[in-house]
Amino acid sequence: MAKTYENLEIWKQAIELSGTIYLATKNFPREEAYGLSLQLRRAVVSISANIAEGAGRDSKKEFVRFVNIAIGSLNEVESLLWVAREIKYLNDPDLQKLRVKIDKLGGLLGGFKKYLNK
Description:
Blueprint: H1 9-26, H2 36-55, H3 60-86, H4 92-117
């Protein structure tokens, strides 16, 4: 199953979200380089990485486990963005734009998980 992840819309959307989060965190204060910025970046990269790793596993059951981890990482990203908004690193319009992407990816991940569980 290796390399099949590159054709998955969930992986493509996760990569796109990673780029968007990296750009958004560029505007965070410099003192956040090893704090909130790093945590957000690690969490968002984890989404696509877990999709890729799950695709390389031997069974659908294992793939579902990695999709669940990706969903958890997506939830972590969203929570961290709320923190960023609370401390004024993000404004409401920027947060809402990111949440649209997060909601879309979340729906795709949930649908893919259901598909794998059939």
